[in-house]
Amino acid sequence: MAASLPLEDGSKTTNWLTRKLSSKKSKTSRSSSPIRLTTVTNPNFVSFSDIIRSRRPTEHQSRVPAPTMDDSLVDIAVNASSDVSSLADKSRGTIDFFHTPPTTMPTVRGSHYEDWSTIDWLSDQARDRLRHQIITQQKKESAWKRFLALHDALSGWFCVLLIAINIGIIAAIVDIGAIWLSNIKTGICLPAFYLSREQCCWTASNQTYDKYQHVVCDNWYTWANLIRIENGTTTEYIIDYIAYVFFGLIFATLCAILVKTFAPYACGSGVPEVKTILSGFIIRGYLGVWTLLIKSLGMVLGTSANLLLGKEGPFVHSSCCCGNIFARLFPKYGQNEAKKREILSAAAAAGVSVAFGAPIGGVLFSLEEVSYYFPLKTLWRSFFCAMIASLIVKILSPFENQHLGLFYVGNRYRWFYFEMVPFFLLGVLGGLFGALFIKLNLAWCRIRKKTRLGRYPVLEVILVALVTLLVSYPNPFTRMSMSDLIRRLISSCETEDESLLCNYQRNTTSAYEKNESAKPLYGVWLSVGLLCSALVTQTSLFILTFGIKVPCGLFIPSMTLGAITGRIVGILFETLVYYQPNFFLFAAECSTADEQCVVPGFYAVIGACAFLGGVTRMTVSLVVIMVELTGGLSYSVPLMCAALVSKFVGDALVGEGIYDAHIQLNNYPYLDVKAEFVDQTTAVTVLETKQDKNELIMLPRDSLTVGELINIIHTYKYNGYPVVSSREEASIIGFVLRRDLQLVLEQRAVINVQSNLNTQISFSRITHQSNSIHIYRLLNRSPATITLDTPTTTIIDMCRKLGAQTILVTNEKGHLTGILTKKDIIAYVKQKKMK
Fold it and tell me: Where is this region: Disordered (predicted)?
């Protein structure tokens, strides 16, 4: 049976505007209103539907004066501080509000779900429908009620607007801080210490570039230059090496300490947990204020330490934190977990938008990768949220070109049909890399969980950072940040480019002549060797880094390794074309090309797409993100080829992406809505294989005392209890939540405790016992019910598509024989996959 944790009161931020205005209104209307809210156990109450019917007299019915709704009812309907589920009339399939004095009305602060539990989508959607029905009915009464209705209708757009503005501001701050701290490891700008290396050299008159395309100017001082060490000496190299490692260790250690001390949920990517939350799972504190603050600071410190991690995935987590925080200000979403997930889906789109400067790709990422329930209105709000967030970053960040086309190359690259062969090869390599990375990373995470290493997360971060910094500095390609390395790898080699990566023997004497294929010289092959070394070391460090207790994403590291591989393949294929110019494919196409036939920089773009697709198994959203990143609309076909091939190869070897793999590793109750499940069993098999075979507790419709109910509630702490016709006959009458029963018992507490324990409880529609507690209206008369012969695939679809939380199982006579929950179904699916 569905196990549930003890009832817990949360805290929600009330809508200050509604509270302020409604308090003024209540001073004049409460004293004259003839209707008061009464206790939920009063059998003579008047429901909201009864009020509506009283306003429609028939010819056989005399007109009755229509009562007005009390302002406290408005507050219940639109105020996030009141939990309307405690006043639910589940016998009608929706919610009715009872008229009870405000002093006796039970309210529960915050969400009515327990930590680490699943939400009931059907119940939450029913609650929202009736809340909307009440507000629509009330807006005809006064101008203030019409304003409340307008406020409720626009609250979703206001909420996503606040999310977009805040995540845009956070992204700009993170970018500025990360770039500045990254440059601190190598030196400082003496004229203005707060400037990065690139900004410091903007106004310098003698700005030049070294053989690895690093900017050099007199305003920028390395740490060796500050102590008057001569350039080009071994001492200078050692001093800069020590400073690089020292500052990197400081940043990594500070990041790990902040995460461990203030917000343990701020570690990792956050995308697997966000997917689980959006599927209907409750994780208290994961989207809180402290998590947002430490996650943002951790992104700055982690990327500045040159660890093999990115800040793009954590931006999704941070934006969802903003969504959860601002949803509390709007009762439509703050008090309804199902509706809140619509806001979180829009927030996830904004996270990718500010990370890559790809608003359309962010919307598709939310739809394809993280969202569980994505209606059309959520698509519009996601689009709006991603657009505003990207605009805010453009306005605030001085590095706006890094967001609007993060790795911009434009349409200057031209590809030919014979290049589909190396593109296909890059797709295969991306799938192989993704499968290898997932297998090895999961194995390392299991070792971390099972050994003493997991007890010392800060020490692990320090060791990983030390190894990373020591290995990265000697290689100039790994010494620079991953974003700078990708931009260097995807750029083309112009005639005036004198870096080692562009060390070609060209026959042109003018920069305006056609840039044809040229013979690669020593510098190119030295760069290939350094890139191969970087590929091996960075892959190994990436496997060890992803999963440590700091904010760590995998988008940029995966793209970096893919760009390295793509550049190497591009150079090799370019060399083949140069030495075999008469091959019929090369001769026919390259002779008519306006520019050089094979561009290694374009292969880096395809490789980045293939490797990221192999790790995450993204397809449509990945291609759109890459098109927005590069600004090249003509590259869609090669990008689609690489993404599809990498997904097919990765699925054939592993079968799931890194996010789903970590969901299973952490044993989150996630039922993949996209996965296909083929099984010939029925509900009988699922009941027999349940891991938690709890005792089946049924409440009789009548002949139940308060003392018996209290004993059941305290002994069997389930989510709810089925109500049957009698103790002898288990015909299903309905389902009642444990939490609602607790509220009823709290209201019925009297001075004579012994007398109260003997009071009868009735779930019948009509009762003849005046002293009994009549709680028929708290009964859900239409719970999800199946038979023992129901196919397992149908049960799974009920949980995935209908959002059923609890399913009652009956035999051929219609008698209750068992209960299945969503967690039971998830456990069964996992058992079948393991077999």
Answer: 16-36
pLDDT of residue 592: 62
**Residue 31 included in any domain:** no
Kindly state whether residue 101 falls inside one of the protein's structural domains: no
Confirm if 421 and 643 have CB atoms less than 8 A apart: no
Dihedral sign computed on CA atoms, order 242, 309, 327, 780: negative
Beta-sheet strand order (sheet of 732-737): 699-700, 720-724, 732-737
Position 141 in a domain: no
CATH of the domain at 446: 1.10.3080.10
Q: How far is Cα 608 from Cα 569, in angstroms, rounded to an integer?
A: 12
Please name the residues in contact with 767: beta carbons below 8 A apart, sequence gap of 6 or more: 43, 702, 774
Residues 688, 565, single domain; the answer is: no
The pair of structure tokens assigned to 226 is 């500050």
Q: Give the integer Cα–Cα distance in Å for 639 and 138.
A: 54
- Same structural domain for residues 651 and 523? yes
Name every residue whose Cβ is closer than 8 Å to that of residue 319 and which is 6 or more positions away in sequence: 163, 167, 347, 348, 350, 351, 354, 389
Q: At residue 405, does pLDDT exceed 80?
A: no
Same domain? 305 vs 441: no
In a domain, 7, yes or no: no
Which runs of E-coded beta strand occur in 571-706?
Answer: 699-700, 704-705
Same domain, 167 and 206: yes
Same domain, residue pair 569 and 650: yes
- 8 Å CB contact between 114 and 6: yes
Q: Is 229 helix (H, G, I), strand (E, B) or coil?
A: coil
Same domain as 780, residue 703? yes
Residue with tokens 């927005």: 628
Query: How many angstroms from the chain centroid is the CA of residue 670?
Result: 13
d(CA 327, CA 333): 5
- Rounded to whole angstroms, the Cα distance separating 531 from 536 reads 9
Q: Which residues contact 392 (CB under 8 A, 6 or more apart)?
A: 164, 165, 167, 168, 169, 171, 172, 354
Using DSSP bridges, classify how beta strands 760-762 and 773-774 pair: parallel, antiparallel or unpaired: parallel
In this prediction, residue 643 carries a pLDDT of 94
Residue tagged 């601190």 (tokens): 184
- Of the candidates 199, 196, 159, 190, the one whose C-alpha atom is nearest the C-alpha of residue 15 is 159
Domain boundary among 604, 632, 666: 666
State how far the Cα of 497 lies from the Cα of 499, in Å rounded to an integer.
Answer: 6
486, 563 contact by CB (below 8 A): yes
Which three-class secondary structure state does DSSP give residue 218? coil
Residue with tokens 């434009």: 410
CA Rg value for the chain: 32
Q: Which residues contact 689 (CB under 8 A, 6 or more apart)?
A: 828, 831
Once rounded to an integer, what is the mean pLDDT over residues 339-356? Answer: 93
Regarding whether 531 and 617 lie in a shared domain, the answer is yes
Q: Are residues 433 and 368 in the same domain?
A: no
Looking up tokens 């499968």 gives 435
* Per-residue pLDDT tens over the stretch 366-403: 999 898 888 889 999 999 999 999 999 988 877 654 44
DSSP annotation of 87 reads G
Angle of the 337-356 helix axis to the 143-184 helix axis, nearest 10: 40
The distance from CA 32 to its chain's CA centroid, rounded to whole angstroms, is 49
What domain range includes position 659? 417-453+476-505+518-666
Structure tokens, 167 = 């995540």
pTM, two decimals, is 0.81
Residue whose entry in the numeric block shows the structure tokens 């996630």? 670
**39: Cβ–Cβ under 8 A, 6 or more apart, which residues?**
98, 100, 104, 747
Instruction: Quote the number of domains for the chain.
Output: 3
Distances (CA, A) of 344 to 80, 157, 171, 571, 595: 17, 13, 17, 44, 47
Highest mean pLDDT among 45-54, 461-470, 486-495, 734-743: 461-470
pLDDT in tens, 693-728: 778 889 998 888 888 888 998 888 888 899 999 888
pLDDT (average), residues 443-467 = 92
